[in-house]
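Suppose you are handed a protein chain with no further information: no name, no annotation, nothing but its sequence. What can you learn? This example shows the usual starting point.
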Amino acid sequence: MRNTQRGFTLIELMIVVAIIGILAAIAVPQYSDYVTRSRRADGQSTLLQVAQALERCYTQFSAYNNTSCAVVGTGGVSQASPEGYYVIAAAGSALAAGAFTLTATPQGAQATNDSDCTTLTLTHLGVQGATGADTDSCW
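A reasonable first move is to predict its three-dimensional structure. Written in structure tokens, the prediction is:
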């Protein structure tokens, strides 16, 4: 009778650990980039919602900056996105009777992680803009 033992050798286990390490090194940056882009969508959608509200104000009051409008306060427009990753603002010359330029500024972790798009902008003409290292990927 022969007594054989079954199991994994140390070399086999080290190869598996190395493979897992390589996969993790590839997956973690991809996941982080995906999270940053999905949070950016929070700012984009809020910009579009505020712009639509301002268009309704213009239709009703013939001015974007009328204080009777729900989105316009005494200092202009200032609204946080639903998830809280961006603050949408327009004040002073950025919010006039016949024109507006909304700016979305990232907050918290989004401000730290998103160097490609440091701000997002949207005008009354629908012109989308951005500042940052890679503005082509912002919209």
